[in-house]
Amino acid sequence: MKSWLLLALQVGVAVVLILAWHVVSTTNLFGDPKTMAFFFSTPSDVAAQVWDWFQGGTIWYNLWITLSEAALSFVIGAFAALVIGFWFARKPMLASVFDPYVKGANALPRVVLAPIFTLWFGLGIWSKVALGFTLVFFIVFFNVVQGVKEVDRTVLSNARMLGLNERQLLRHVYLPSALSWVFSSLHTSIGFAVVGAVVGEYLGSAAGLGYLIQQAEGMFDVAGVFAGMFVLAAFVILIDWGVTIAERRLLVWQPKGHHDT
Hints:
Elements: H1 3-26, H2 33-40, H3 43-56, H4 58-90, H5 92-107, H6 110-121, H7 125-149, H8 153-161, H9 166-203, H10 209-218, H11 222-250, H12 256-259
């Protein structure tokens, strides 16, 4: 599909959804418009709130705090997952020993961990980073392990016959094999890094988009809640677009259909 046609269809879906939202919240079709607007706000009120935030400049500091927390969670979590994931994938005995502990840690509800991280690291940035780390790490970790396991055995055997040592195998065989899995997990973990930051701010913070959303919710300002969510979604899409560009550059050796998104 041509890129311009895909973009047009994506914009068209957004327009339809916004129009449907406008109809629901401003007409009698689904009930009293005042009641519907109270619970769902309206597109114009949300747009006005976003505009006021950016025009007044109040959003920039809070957005910077949230994106900093999410970026740190993403980078630290993804790096740790890459290192430990490759290590476990290359050491089957080690992976078998720690397998139940890894799965048990992954099963822990992250919302329960948030107050513990706040107790350990305080109300500052690092409690949010810790929460985001737990969300990002396991997503990338399991994909790295699976990516290494999925390496083509014929390619691996041929590389060993050519005399490649373990470091060369890692660079030329295992890493390229796992890259598709890694980038797939990175697209997902971007959103989870932001979720970790926002949830941490929501539970206890003096700044950030999660704090703004919590404040708006406390005042029954539905437009403010939706505005915060839309701002978050917009920046996550931008970051994901950046990851997609990096993916296409790093996976240029693959057939085109393998990494086009």
